[in-house]
Amino acid sequence: PTECFLNQPEEKQESTVKAKKRKKKKISDVLQKSAPKPGVPADLQNLLTQHFGENRSVIEREELQLSDSCFLPANDLTHSFSSYLKEICPKWAKLRRNHKEKKSVVMLVLCSSALRSLELIKSMTSFKGDCRVLKLFAKHIKIKEQMNMLEKGVFHIGVGTPGRVKALVEQDALCLNSMKYMILDWNWRDQKLRRMVDIPEV
Predict the structure, then answer these.
(1) CA atoms of 187 and 202, how far apart (whole Å)
(2) Where is this region: Disordered (predicted)?
(3) Where are the domains of the chain?
């Protein structure tokens, strides 16, 4: 009888240990099950309110609200990058010819990584024509090099990461006054299935 009594609590302990070893859900597992949805203007508005909501006053939050006229139609996942740009910017050839300002771009494309930026630059060949594209990311390119290039030459499209673009704007190396289009690479997911907006640093 004593042996039976001693064995029982041991069995209970084992079962509690097994219960504790449950697999944690990773964000990539959750994202894998969710179907990709094309981004809409409301997504960006919600993100801005979430991010600045606690630190800003009501008036400041109202100023952050962008009107619907600020947004062009989003890519509904049926277009390639070049065909999407052709649709939203039919007068690109004229805009490209008229742009003569240094330290600025007509179109700014923001992506989550340097590799993704290179992918997009390759995929926009049929759209860009003979215009000059500037890589605006940190991988293998020093910020001083980019600042010199912006000062000396005229560039039409800038493709890069938010961190590097922010650094260039803060140092007055990149002026946004002549910018007509800002494209956010919203729908693309990386290996961990994160979109640009799912990365905390961004």
Answers:
(1) 15
(2) 1-38
(3) 90-188+192-196
76-108 pLDDT, tens digit each: 878 888 999 999 999 999 999 999 999 999 999
What DSSP state is assigned to residue 68? Answer: G
Per CATH, which fold does 90-188+192-196 belong to? Rossmann fold (3.40.50)
Pairing of strands 107-110, 181-184: parallel
Residue 66 to residue 127: CA distance in whole angstroms: 28
Query: Of 160, 130, 162, 125, nearest to 145 (Cα)?
Result: 160
What is this structure's pTM? 0.77
Angle (CA) 113-124-37 rounded to 5° is: 60
Helices and strands: H and E segment counts in the chain: 10, 4
- Bridge partners (DSSP) of residue 159 are 109, 135
